[in-house]
Amino acid sequence: MATLTPGKWTLDTSHSEAMFSVRHAGISRVRGNFEDFSGSAEFTENLDGSVVQAEVMAASINTRNEDRDNHLRGEDFFDVANHPVLKFESLTATGFDGEKFTLTGNLTIRGVTKQVEFQSEFGGQTVDAFGMTRAGFEATTEISREDFGLTWNAPLEAGGFLVSDKVRITLDVSFTKDEE
Q1: How many CB atoms lie within 10 A of CB 24?
Q2: pTM beyond 0.70
Q3: How many angstroms separate the CA atoms of 179 and 137, rounded?
Q4: Do 7 and 42 form a contact (C-beta atoms < 8 A)?
Q5: Which residues are 29's β-sheet partners?
Q6: 15-25: per-residue pLDDT in tens?
Q7: CA distance 74 to 157
Q8: Which of 83, 84, 103 is nearest to 43 (CA)?
Q9: Is the pLDDT of residue 1 over 60?
Q10: Which domains does the chain have, with CATH numbers?
Q11: Could you read off the pLDDT of 147-161 as tens digits, one per residue?
Q12: Which of 14, 21, 106, 159 is the most buried (most CB within 10 A)?
């Protein structure tokens, strides 16, 4: 069973990814990520009572298509001029068995806050080659984009819509232990 050192930790964005995927035209998935984000955590040994906070700059979206990214930044989707930051603030971490747990918290997108559950996995803790204590986690959830006011869509000739309502969010993150 892996152990986690209690204390304050900082998200190492150079070794982390905030990704998403959404079904496009009902037949394939468009994948993307956010390139500008930050976060911190105060972990307890068994994660019970831990606090995790993260901010994502909505304008940093990257789906490898400039026209699509500009559309996503606009009023039809993220409306980054009025809502530049996506936020997550944890409420609970439950069921930690040394590896898996559920992280529940408030996710804010486009000024709308909803409670979400990330199915999470603790990858372990180590000291890296530079003497930094680091811990790794993966977390996934699925949200309804329409719940957050991202309602733009286009009907398809054969039925259905261009963009699925369901969005899968995947986080693959590394935290470094703050010196005390």
Answers
A1: 15
A2: yes
A3: 20
A4: yes
A5: 23
A6: 999 999 998 87
A7: 25
A8: 103
A9: no
A10: 7-177 (2.40.128.110)
A11: 999 888 777 777 777
A12: 21
